Each structure stands twice: as C-alpha cells, then as structure tokens.
TrEMBL record:
<keyword id="KW-0812">Transmembrane</keyword>
<feature type="transmembrane region" description="Helical">
    <location>
        <begin position="122"/>
        <end position="140"/>
    </location>
</feature>
<keyword id="KW-1003">Cell membrane</keyword>
<feature type="transmembrane region" description="Helical">
    <location>
        <begin position="97"/>
        <end position="116"/>
    </location>
</feature>
<feature type="transmembrane region" description="Helical">
    <location>
        <begin position="57"/>
        <end position="85"/>
    </location>
</feature>
<keyword id="KW-0472">Membrane</keyword>
<dbReference type="InterPro" id="IPR003740">
    <property type="entry name" value="YitT"/>
</dbReference>
<keyword id="KW-1133">Transmembrane helix</keyword>
<feature type="transmembrane region" description="Helical">
    <location>
        <begin position="188"/>
        <end position="205"/>
    </location>
</feature>
<feature type="transmembrane region" description="Helical">
    <location>
        <begin position="31"/>
        <end position="51"/>
    </location>
</feature>
<dbReference type="InterPro" id="IPR051461">
    <property type="entry name" value="UPF0750_membrane"/>
</dbReference>
<dbReference type="Pfam" id="PF02588">
    <property type="entry name" value="YitT_membrane"/>
</dbReference>
<feature type="transmembrane region" description="Helical">
    <location>
        <begin position="161"/>
        <end position="182"/>
    </location>
</feature>
<dbReference type="GO" id="GO:0005886">
    <property type="term" value="C:plasma membrane"/>
</dbReference>
<protein>
    <submittedName>
        <fullName>Putative 5xTM membrane YitT family protein</fullName>
    </submittedName>
</protein>
Amino acid sequence: MSNCEQPRCATVCLHQSKPQHSWLDDVQGELSGILVVVLGVSLLKAAGLITGQFAGLALLIALATGFSFGSVFFLINVPFFIFAFIRMGGRFTLKSLIAISSISLLTDLMPQFIQYQYLNGWVAAVLGGLCTGIGLLMLFRHGCSCGGVGVVALYIQERTGFRAGWVQLIFDLVLFSVAFTLLPTQAVLLSLLGALVFNLAISLNHRRDRYIASS
C-alpha cells in the first residue's frame, strides 16, 4: 500500500493534489461574481429594500446624506483594505479592490440599463438575497471578497472554523435594528428576509472540505 493509500495520510495527499485555478478561471469567476452581486443589489434597491453587510450600511448612509451608494460603499471599505493587506496578503487585497470598485460603479450605473416596471417585494427579497449570496461565493472561491464584514468573516472562518455566514448574520442583526428607525417596517422585514437567504447561502456552501480548488 502506498503512502497516499493510508487513511492517516488522506488529508495530506488531498492537500498535495489540490487543484489550482488558472488566471482565466479567476478572471471569469471574479467577473461573474461581480455581475451577479450587482444584479442582486439592483433587485433589492428597485423594490425599496436594503441589503445586508456593508452594502446595507452604505445604503443607509446614502439615504441619510444624499451621497451615491457606490461612493459610500467604496469609502467605508477603505479601512478593510488595510486589514486585508495585513491579514490576507496583497493578492487578495488587490482582487477585492477590483471587485469593490466594480460593484460600486456598476450598481450606480445599473438603473440606466435595467428598470423594473413591476417587482414584487417578496420575490425581490429572495432573489436579491440569493444572487448576492451566490455572487459572493464566486468571489470567495476565486480569492477575493466584497470587502467590509466579508473580509473579516472570511478571515475568522479560515482561522477558527466559525462560519463566515454566521459572522455576517450577527452584523446584519445590528444593521437591521438601526434600519427599523429609518425605514418602513415592511421594507425592513422584507430586507431581513433577503439577508437571511444571503447568509444561509454563504454559511451552507462556503466550506473548504467541499471546494478544494484555490487561486
């Protein structure tokens, strides 16, 4: 029996044979993730809902100050670029910077290309939450993030095993508590549903033992 056939070496052999993403894999994966996140955010915004995480925080700040969502979303992520560079490395930080910049720009431009004549709030909450969750999973799996809480949550999961989705859910609970003071109750409740779908998608699917390819 070879070393790799021995049960005690299974984990080591799996790590040694871990497939790598090519640069083309990463480019298409990150681009796809960005577009799916933007689609999800546009659905939520069009229905008058907010998102979770720093995107939700950026939207609340934008509503209170009149600044655009994209500019606020980018600026509040600046401290996390520093954190990501120190903790996650330059490659992760650069790819996350590209993702955040693209999402900030495209979200503000999206109404010029897609407008919804009718959009049910329940459908927008579920599809918007699912799209943002799927998009963020794509970014995670290609070595980047949407920044903010996602960077910290991903780092905590890598170091402790505590699911990234649960870290983000805790943040969202605080965020939506504040949102109740600024938005109609029904809009916040539907937004909370979208955030729940988003976080469940992350917590149930972002696992190292189920996805072993890396950048």
